[in-house]
Each structure stands twice: as structure tokens, then as C-alpha cells.
Write a structure and sequence with these properties.
eight-stranded mixed sheet; two-stranded antiparallel ribbon; 10 strands; 18% helix
Length: 282
């Protein structure tokens, strides 16, 4: 493994083989006392609070936590889930929230840590390309429809603007052994799964074949994204992008569309928010 990426809602750090970059937090989220700093040295990374003490040093995520996942169930076709628009106002959710799998805006701090594989499989839409299999997992006890979450994950990954727009890759879903895992978990469980990276109940991480998404970010997203769906597409594509070997990029200039691998959770300006590797693809 050449490096580990950790995305934080407010802090995003990349652990690379030769030095790292760490960015400041965004407005309104924990850790605002931190400031941008680059820490040199092989394999070293730190997000440094205002008191000067590092919260993340020499960190590499090595545990995929596959041991927490039970035996895969038999593959079954995905079944569309009906959404009742009349229930949206009572739950305080939008139609887009429901499509993302949310059943409420309740985010538990921590649960049992049991990760449940969402049953179902679907073939890659472009099998002539290199096919990467994806297993979707949701922590037991989250107020989330796992099938809807899985459908969002796969629709995002196989969107015409996604990583396959250059003809390089296509994604197939499986509930068995997989190349990549996309995991939705409570803040406390994310801390456990991402250790020794310091996610302090707020952030997400991606490494070692797993994109671990913090349910708090999935529910509330970040202030720089007015469109929550776009943020959710961004966080899936960005974390999976790290698993595909892509590093961080900078905003190219005021008014430009942010590259997907820009640390947009940390801040989008002066660029324009973007959730896609190839936003101009047909």
C-alpha cells in the first residue's frame, strides 16, 4: 500500500509514501482551531490543532475489518424499493434523502460494530472494461435502508460521469468476495474501523480496499454543498477514487469546476462544487 487517504468533514489528510498534505477544517464543523500544515518525512501525517499537538502522526490504515462481516449470503437480484412521498414531511426528509436510503435524520454515536452485507448482485454495465466488484455493507442499527444505499452507491459508480467515463473501468455489485468495499457506519464505529487514523466521530476514511463513510456526513453532508445528493455522489466517488489510486488535487482557479479529488469536504471555494471524475462526460 503506497498511502492512506482520510477524508474528514472539516479535516482531510493523505498519508503518502513521501510527505503529506493536510487541510484546515471548514466552517461550522468540529476542529476549527486546526490550521493547514505540511508534515515532511516518509509516511508521516498530522492535522495540527491550534495548540500545536498533532492528532494524526505516522498513520496507516491496515485493518479492513473483514473479520466483522458475516458469511456472504446467496446473491439475489436487487428489488426496487417504493418511496411514499406522503411520509417525507413527517420524517423531515426530502425525496433525495429517501433515495439515498435515509429513514430518519437520527445518527447514533456508536452501535455494535456489526457490519451487514447488503444482499444482492448486479453485473457491470460495461463488461468489456476492467471490472471491479463492489460489496456494500451497512452497520446494523443505522436508520438506513441498505438496499437504497447500495443502489445509490452503484448508480454513482457507474454513472456516465463516473470513473468509467474514460473507458477504464466498470463496477459490478456482489455480496461475496469483492475488490472494493463501501461501508456506511456510525461515527463511533468509523473511529474503530479507521484506527489508527484519528476520525474523532466526525470523519470518513478510505484505504486497504474499503471506503468507510461516516453516517453523520451521509445524513448532514457539508455546508459547501447546497445539493446534498451531489455531496453524497462526491464522497462515494472521492473515497473510491483513493482506492483506485488517485491522489488529491487542488482547485485550479476561481470559478472553475472543482476536480473530484480536491478536498471539497474541507472547502470548495474558489471552485464550484463537483461530485464527478468526468463532469462533462455525456
Amino acid at each position: 500500500m503506497t498511502g492512506t487517504a482520510i477524508e474528514r468533514s472539516g479535516v482531510e489528510a493523505t498519508v503518502a509514501a513521501a510527505g503529506v498534505s493536510v487541510s484546515r477544517p471548514d466552517e461550522g464543523l468540529p476542529g476549527r482551531g486546526a490550521f493547514e500544515r505540511v508534515v515532511g518525512g516518509v509516511g508521516a501525517a498530522a492535522e495540527v490543532p491550534s495548540d500545536g499537538s498533532p492528532t494524526l502522526v505516522d498513520s496507516v490504515l491496515v485493518d479492513s475489518r473483514a473479520d466483522q462481516v458475516g458469511p456472504p449470503s446467496a446473491a439475489t437480484p436487487a428489488v426496487p424499493v417504493a418511496i411514499d412521498p406522503s411520509a417525507l414531511d413527517a420524517a423531515g426528509l426530502t425525496f433525495a434523502d429517501r433515495e439515498a436510503g435515509l429513514l430518519s435524520t437520527v445518527v447514533p454515536d456508536g452501535l455494535s460494530g456489526e457490519l451487514v452485507v447488503v444482499p444482492g448482485s448486479e453485473p457491470a454495465p460495461a463488461p468489456e472494461r476492467a471490472v471491479r466488484t463492489v460489496r456494500v455493507e451497512v452497520e446494523a442499527g443505522l436508520d438506513v435502508d441498505g438496499e437504497m444505499f447500495a443502489r445509490t452507491v452503484m448508480a454513482t459508480l457507474n454513472d456516465p460521469r463516473g470513473w468509467g467515463a474514460d473507458g477504464s473501468v466498470s463496477f459490478a455489485r456482489t455480496d461475496g468476495d469483492a475488490d472494493l468495499r463501501v461501508v456506511l457506519a456510525s461515527p463511533g464505529t468509523v473511529d474503530d474501523l479507521c484506527a489508527p487514523l484519528s476520525t474523532v466521530g466526525e470523519y470518513s476514511c478510505g484505504s486497504d480496499g474499503a471506503a468507510v463513510i461516516n453516517d453523520k456526513r451521509w445524513v448532514f453532508t457539508t455546508p459547501d454543498f447546497a445539493d446534498k445528493t451531489l455531496y453524497r455522489q462526491y464522497v462515494i466517488n472521492h473515497e473510491v477514487g483513493h482506492l483506485l489510486g488517485h491522489g488529491h488535487l487542488e482547485c485550479p482557479g476561481p470559478g472553475e469546476v472543482a476536480p473530484l479529488m480536491q478536498q471539497q469536504t474541507v472547502g470548495v471555494a474558489p471552485c464550484i462544487a463537483n461530485g464527478w471524475p468526468f463532469p462533462d462526460a455525456a
